[in-house]
Structure to design on (763 residues):
């Protein structure tokens, strides 16, 4: 006998109100799938829900022993944010890094400001506020020491965890005056003096040890899957195999016979749009996860697969190709591309296909929830604590203030863990178990079958070449289901923010440019993925640019620089980009000088133009992604059997000032590995509405033997007067086109669909 538990549906409006800015969706997708107007535009962190906070008393506390505790309000998933943001505070505080500890903030947007860790914006939004936090705390310590000594505050200097009275040389430790400092009113903002770059001890340096490094290496950290509470029970869930499907019948009699199984609970699903709601299904609750898994295997289930039961990704590709070959509404139109194309002496056409891909984080989703006294507490590996809080509160019918979200470390995120459906599942099952703590674990199969998948796309490009091989007209039709479909039922075609990722905002000096966006439906949950729509758009645009160079019999680098044209700063709105990653178009114009600069740097470091033996080649690609400029040069070796080796990758990154260079290099290296993985083997396919892949044997991730022998990251230096760019995502889109362009240089074979897999193997 199974227990039936019906969840409470969230309204689209209530959820969107709090999470509208996830992954850069700020004021972009409304409840009807349209761009939402704002009374007064706000940019950067100020434009995010919750805004920015820089209260020193909120983020810093100092014990009598002098240990400085700094709150990290963003989620750590390997990108180093639990080191980098506290490091900024510690530098301005002039604290000894060896005497700093970091604690993770609970999910509380009203208290900490925006905590959503998506969109490569943690540092670019929080660098200024965290500097202010550290400098304010430093001033308060200096003021407290001055009061203790009865001297003017100007005579006191904080230096390396000590307060020094400069005329007399007297010293106090930070812990000696911390209690007095904490009682002081916060000083006026204008009275707080920030350090000069020459005074930095940690910012811009490579010497700062990762705050979690030792604990991660020794296994003393807590990820979502590690949470254990007294009296906790364990759950796995059989979810509908097809998005939009629902349970028809269940026989749980055999499952209940499995040793350790306690109960079987039905979870009612949520009709589209998906939002961050659970998919529903049947949960098996047991004394341990293995028993729950075996109990799930014993369930006898039948499903009503619903409206997406016939979804076939191979057939859908044909639908997208047909749409891409027909005129559609223009989303950017400069000059008269169609007329010039019709008369061009030479016309080049190409179509590119990229399949769905799954996030496949090394740690699958996991969450624990417990309900006590009408309040719910959650422990989960989430990127979006506020969305988690709101989602759980909505499903339980609680006030947000009655939900506590404890953010654990994340074993990878890539955007998947900003959708907290798994946390809501744990909360609903705790309610079904009368408040007992319930841990929901997703197996790898669950993760791959029920992801918020990166969109599938067909990209069609056409260009007219004049007699000199110069591009006179450019047409790009980009065809893909939209992320907006998880927020608004029936939304189809790419939303403005998706189009502003390397489709409409291509800064080529071409007089006639037209970009169209044919509309197609979504048949599964579509979600943002590391670098989002830059991946398909940059693959197509950068591959096609190389094809045009080859058609013109020109060197690819020289031709690409000519396409970009002279150094200039372009207001994104001039390219029909009203989004610009949520940043001010005045502060963040698209700077083609910086775009040219990373191309020149990467190709120089890679030895572009050097003579290579047969079967080897260099490929180039460039991308403006998350307000950062990235160029990659990939060197490949393809043997007679079509096997690909990658001896070297050179990546030039211009992300503005380098706050933590070691983490910049690490993130770019990781993006390179991920980009190669997606290009070589990444594919999710659907048959009869269900995902065909299930684990890493058929949804492969890059193995160590296939990784590049060498990855060199070249960082463009900048002073603090240049605004910060993103780092976590921008490198990913450059890798697949650079790799495929290198394969063409080595073999003469053009790759226009991903993954590459066996395309180079000889029959």
């Amino acid at each position: 006998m199974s227990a039936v538990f019906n969840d409470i549906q969230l309204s689209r409006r209530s959820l969107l109100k709090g999470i509208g800015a996830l992954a850069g969706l700020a004021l972009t997708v409304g409840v009807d799938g349209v761009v939402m107007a704002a009374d007064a535009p706000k940019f950067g962190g100020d434009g995010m829900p919750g805004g920015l906070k820089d209260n020193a008393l909120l983020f810093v506390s100092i014990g009598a022993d002098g240990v400085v505790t700094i709150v990290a309000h963003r989620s750590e998933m390997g990108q180093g944010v639990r080191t980098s943001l506290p490091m900024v505070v510690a530098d301005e505080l002039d604290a000894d890094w060896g005497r700093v500890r970091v604690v993770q903030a609970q999910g509380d947007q009203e208290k900490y400001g925006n905590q959503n860790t998506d969109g490569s914006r943690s540092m670019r939004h929080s660098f200024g506020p965290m500097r202010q936090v550290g400098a304010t705390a430093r001033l308060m310590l200096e003021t407290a020491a001055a009061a203790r000594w009865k001297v003017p505050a100007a005579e006191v200097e904080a230096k390396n965890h000590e307060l020094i009275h400069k005329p007399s040389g007297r010293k106090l430790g930070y812990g000696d005056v911390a209690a007095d400092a904490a009682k002081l009113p916060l000083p006026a903002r204008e009275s707080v003096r920030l350090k000069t770059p020459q005074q930095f001890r940690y910012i811009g340096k490579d010497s700062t040890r990762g705050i979690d490094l030792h604990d991660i290496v020794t296994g003393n950290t807590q990820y979502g899957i590690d949470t254990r509470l007294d009296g906790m029970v364990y759950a796995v869930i059989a979810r509908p195999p097809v998005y939009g499907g629902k349970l028809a019948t269940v026989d749980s009699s055999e499952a209940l016979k499995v040793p350790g199984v306690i109960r079987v609970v039905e979870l009612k699903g949520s009709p589209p749009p998906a939002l961050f709601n659970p998919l529903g299904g049947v949960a098996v609750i047991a004394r341990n996860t293995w028993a729950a898994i075996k109990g799930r295997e014993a369930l006898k289930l039948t499903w009503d697969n619903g409206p997406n039961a016939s979804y076939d990704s191979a057939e859908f590709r044909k639908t997208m190709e047909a749409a891409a070959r027909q005129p559609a509404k223009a989303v950017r139109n400069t000059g008269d591309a169609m007329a010039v194309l019709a008369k061009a002496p030479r016309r080049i056409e190409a179509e590119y296909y990229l399949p769905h891909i799954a996030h496949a984080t090394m740690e699958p989703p996991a969450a624990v929830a417990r309900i006590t006294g009408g309040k719910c507490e959650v422990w989960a590996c989430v990127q979006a604590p506020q969305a988690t809080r709101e989602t759980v509160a909505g499903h339980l019918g609680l006030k947000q203030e009655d939900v506590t979200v404890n953010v654990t470390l994340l074993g990878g995120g890539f955007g998947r863990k900003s959708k907290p459906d798994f946390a809501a599942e744990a909360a609903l099952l705790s309610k079904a178990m009368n408040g007992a703590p319930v841990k929901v674990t997703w197996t790898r199969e669950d993760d791959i079958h029920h992801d918020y998948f990166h969109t599938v796309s067909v990209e069609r490009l056409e260009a007219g070449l004049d007699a000199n091989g110069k591009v006179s007209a450019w047409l790009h039709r980009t065809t893909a289901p939209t992320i907006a479909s998880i927020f608004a039922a029936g939304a189809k075609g790419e939303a403005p923010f998706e189009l502003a990722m390397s489709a409409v905002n291509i800064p080529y000096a071409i007089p006639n440019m037209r970009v169209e966006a044919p509309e197609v439906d979504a048949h599964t949950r579509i979600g943002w993925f590391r670098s989002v729509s830059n991946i398909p758009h940059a693959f197509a645009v950068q591959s096609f640019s190389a094809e045009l160079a080859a058609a013109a019999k020109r060197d690819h680098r020289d031709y690409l620089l000519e396409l970009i044209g002279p150094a200039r700063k372009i207001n994104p709105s001039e390219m029909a980009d009203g989004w610009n990653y949520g940043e001010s178009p005045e502060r963040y114009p698209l700077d083609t000088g910086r775009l040219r600069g990373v191309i020149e740097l990467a190709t120089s470091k890679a030895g572009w133009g050097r003579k290579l033996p047969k079967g080897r080649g260099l490929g180039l690609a460039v991308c403006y992604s998350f307000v950062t400029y990235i160029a990659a040069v990939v060197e490949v070796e393809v043997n007679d059997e079509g096997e690909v080796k990658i001896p070297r990758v050179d990546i030039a990154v211009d992300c503005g000032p380098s706050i933590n260079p070691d983490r910049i290099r690490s993130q770019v290296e990781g993006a390179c590995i991920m980009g190669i993985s997606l290009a070589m083997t990444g594919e999710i396919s659907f048959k009869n509405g269900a995902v065909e892949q299930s684990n890493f044997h058929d949804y492969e991730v890059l193995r160590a033997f296939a990784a590049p022998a060498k990855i060199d990251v070249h960082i463009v230096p900048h002073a603090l007067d240049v605004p910060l760019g993103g780092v976590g995502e921008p490198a990913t889109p450059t890798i697949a086109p650079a790799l495929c362009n290198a394969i063409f240089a080595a073999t003469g074979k053009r790759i226009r669909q991903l993954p590459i897999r066996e395309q180079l193997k000889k029959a």
